[in-house]
Amino acid sequence: MLTDHGIPVNIQSGAFRTVFGLLTQNMPFFMILRAVKGGLPVNATEAVSICRKKLEKVTPLCTDCGRICGAACCRPMEAEETGMLLFPGEQALYEGKPEWKIQKAGQDLLIICTGECDREERPLSCRMFPLLPMEDQDSVRAYMDERARYVCPLVPSGIQGVRPEFRKTIEDCGRILLENPETRSFLHHLRLENEALRTLRKDWRVTHGRQQDQTDTEYRE
Length: 221
Ligand code: SF4
Ligand code: SF4
Description:
alpha+beta; two-stranded antiparallel sheet; binds iron/sulfur cluster
């Protein structure tokens, strides 16, 4: 079991707790986990749990953005089973919860969404939407998720339209997720998919004589 700070509860007792607290008070979550685990990378379920916790209360806007769009990203498609991609290791967090239906989607797992859920249990994909963390040379940056383009009213304002704290938390989560090889590969595939969608959209605009819109620059300071 992990505490609020991603530290396993069973190592947080007595004198050890005091010394451990002093040593780790300024360390980021993933470094604490790595230190506790003897330098080993966090496993996928731990990584996803930490990120879900970090994004429990930090949302794209200071107010409930669902009020702007009637929670468009939660609306299931008519006559279709829709869902959100689970991150590697995330399935374990739904064990013993039969109300959540999970099915295979190619190499990935999809959690079926009925349009309503217990907020505390929503998958990481939902918490990150409409951004995605990606490696950018030596750093991790938050990008607008191309899959959000036709759903989310925040997309036209680009990355500047979201709350800086949200963007920063997405980037912190990216650093944690990239520590794990499985999650790293999952994010890499999402990046390739994102880039392919962006190229398709740009090509379509050129073919149809449309001007590029400002969100063609995907990451705007
Ligand atoms: S579609 Fe965008 S604005 Fe609407 S609830 Fe989802 S993230 Fe918020
Ligand atoms: S799982 Fe919950 S938060 Fe995610 S899309 Fe469905 S209703 Fe919305």
